[in-house]
Design goal:
Order of helices and strands of chain A: EHEEEEEEEEEEEEEEEEH
Distance between the termini of chain B: 53 Å
CATH topology of the largest domain in chain B: Sortase, Chain: A
Largest sheet of chain A: 4 strands, mixed
Strand content of chain B: 25-35%
Number of domains of chain A: 1
Largest interface: A-B, 122 and 127 residues
Radius of gyration of chain A: 33 Å
Strand content of chain A: over 45%
Strand order of the largest sheet of chain B: 3-4-7-8-13-14-12-11
Shape of chain B: globular
Helix content of chain A: 10-25%
Oligomer: heterodimer
Largest sheet of chain B: 8 strands, mixed, barrel
CATH architecture of the largest domain in chain B: Beta Barrel
Structural class of chain B: alpha+beta
Helix content of chain B: 10-25%
Order of helices and strands of chain B: EHHHHEEEEEEEEEEEHEE
CATH class of the largest domain in chain B: Mainly Beta
């Protein structure tokens, strides 16, 4: 049996419980994911002129890649291109800072032209029990509202912007409607806003081509922890149970008895005196 | 912006994003004519990179030594490139302590194989099945488990010490990583002493069995039992969601403060999966 108590605690507890690297220990690298949000176009992705994603399909998410900080040049070509010399999108320079988390999205702009946007994903800690919901408009569509349970919680979101909410963890029934309206163009769909996670929802595709859809990316490890487990109220398992607690009770009772007798005696004496 | 249901809303415009380019939502500066510039960036930052070996597929990338054509072609763009690569032009200012993104220094290495998945909403992985029963046969413990969250800032627990609680925001027995945390009151004035009171004296190697809602079981063996004063408990370690899958049982123990009606320590039982 191994049991550490009181002073000896620290060592055992630290070994068993605290010798754990933080989830985001590698703060010197940048994390990069790539989302393909251009409908009907399978592509190749070149990073610094090197073919990195071959035959990357719409709706797919690649990564995260851990990259040294620096500026990376990304070119997106048709999937049958021989090299990056004739990109369909870009080339674009992605300046990546160590410790940050990014998603590069190939998508349509509001007018339906292919483009690319680099988003920085919010990886700041959320409170215990909470999750973060990020909504990004990367679709060929006008401004939209995001509805949860039929009510607008994000309004007038335009391509290529984003909006964030911090919510109690749980499932949200979300839909997307043209701004100022409640008639969904996407959804409603159940989105799990997981605790301690940035759940990123992309509205992508084209309104005109009737292929609007939602894509999901999750970035975890943002949680806070409970600060205690209060797990007892009676002291029945205490190591300092007063062995003399019974004595106290008996002694207390005896004392009360003595006091009572005394009081009665005094009272009785006084009555006797009064009678006289 | 609007705040419905008490939700905090943060909306950002593209203008704001540009003002704070290093933060969220920074728009990629799509520079159509910068193909040559991009190549030059690759050239500069690719110095000595393993990636330079790809010269065969890209004439520019290999043009380190004698690529006069590229250099000449890029000359016209030189100032523009320089402008892009020095703040406050479109390239964001580096965070303090970070090298400027445009400095030739950190050489991007060859990009490794990239994991891919569908981002489709319907294709998201289901959460791991929650634990519903904990048994320690040698100690006569057989308790049902409720999934709990928080009571204020502490882990919530059922009032009955004969019912255990699983911290539902943390890992589950079949999660790929992290500690499954199951706690129960050691006692109660209403319910008397609870089964977890027997954990404090359990021998090392004691077997614990968890059953999950899907009917699967997972066995664990106790590796350590620590009684830790409450203010010293490393909660981030107890509730860690990374690292090897493991089980931590938590209850109270040690000395009792008879005035505050609380124990001064937590009993933390560490256990690792066994076949």
């Amino acid at each position: 049996m191994r049991k550490t108590i009181a002073v000896g605690v620290a060592a055992g507890a630290l070994v068993a419980l605290a010798g754990i690297a933080p989830a985001n220990a590698a703060t010197d690298v940048a994390q990069l994911s790539v989302l393909h949000g251009v409908p009907d176009l399978t592509v190749d992705v070149y990073v610094n002129n090197e073919l990195t994603l071959d035959d990357f399909a719409p709706g797919d998410l690649a990564g995260p890649l851990e990259l040294p900080p620096g500026t990376y040049t990304v070119a997106i070509t048709a999937s049958d291109a021989a090299d990056a010399s004739a990109p369909a999108i870009g080339p674009v320079d992605l300046p990546l800072v160590g410790g940050e988390n990014y998603t590069a999205v190939a998508h349509l702009d509001a007018a339906g032209e292919p483009t690319a946007t680099l988003f920085t994903n919010d990886i700041s800690t959320v409170g215990a029990g909470e999750g973060r919901l990020t909504v990004r408009h990367v679709a060929a569509a006008p401004a939209v509202d995001i509805l949860a349970g039929g009510a607008a919680v994000i309004t007038n979101l335009v391509n290529p912007n984003e909006s964030m909410l911090t919510l109690p963890a749980g499932t949200v029934s979300a839909s997307v409607a043209a701004t100022g309206t409640t008639d969904p163009v996407i959804g409603p769909a159940d989105v799990n806003v997981a605790e301690g996670t940035n759940t990123i929802v992309y509205a992508w595709g084209s309104l005109e081509d009737s292929n609007l859809a939602l894509a999901i990316q999750t970035v975890g490890g943002l949680h806070s922890n409970p600060d205690g487990v209060p797990a007892g109220t009676a002291g029945l398992a205490a190591t300092n149970q007063p062995a003399d607690s019974g004595v106290w009770l008996i002694g207390g009772a005896a004392l009360a008895l003595v006091l009572g007798v005394s009081a009665a005696a005094v009272y009785g004496t006084r009555r006797l005196e009064t009678r006289r | 912006m609007v705040s419905l249901f008490g939700w905090r809303t943060v909306a950002r415009s593209a203008r704001q994003a540009r003002q704070r380019p290093g933060r969220r939502g920074g728009r990629v500066t799509t520079l159509g004519p910068v193909l040559v510039g991009g190549l030059l960036v690759a050239l500069l930052s690719g110095c000595g990179a393993p990636g330079a070996g790809s010269a065969g597929t890209d004439p520019a990338a290999g043009g380190f030594t004698g690529s006069g054509g590229v250099a000449a072609g890029a000359g016209a763009r030189g100032s523009q490139i320089t402008g892009e690569r020095v703040p406050p032009a479109p390239v964001p200012s580096p965070a303090p302590g970070q090298p400027a993104p445009g400095q030739p220094a950190p050489t991007p290495p060859a990009v490794p194989d990239v994991p891919r998945q569908s981002a489709d909403l319907a294709g998201q992985p289901a959460p791991a099945s929650p634990p519903v029963r904990v048994q320690v046969e040698s100690l006569g413990i057989d308790m049902s488990i409720e999934a709990v969250g928080l009571d204020g800032t502490a882990m919530a627990l059922p009032a009955n010490p004969a019912v255990a609680a699983w911290y539902r925001y943390g890992s589950a027995p079949h999660s790929p990583a992290g500690a499954t945390v199951i706690a129960a009151h050691v006692d109660s004035l209403v319910y008397d002493l609870g089964p977890f009171a027997r954990l404090a004296d359990a021998p090392g190697g004691t077997e614990i069995v968890l059953t999950t809602a899907d009917g699967a079981t997972q066995r664990y063996a106790i590796t350590a039992i620590d009684t830790v004063e409450k203010q010293s408990v490393p909660w981030a370690g107890v509730f860690d969601r990374a690292g090897q899958p493991r089980l931590t049982l938590v209850t109270c123990g040690g000395e009792f403060d008879y005035e505050a009606k609380r124990y001064l320590s937590n009993v933390l039982v560490s256990a690792v999966p066994v076949p």
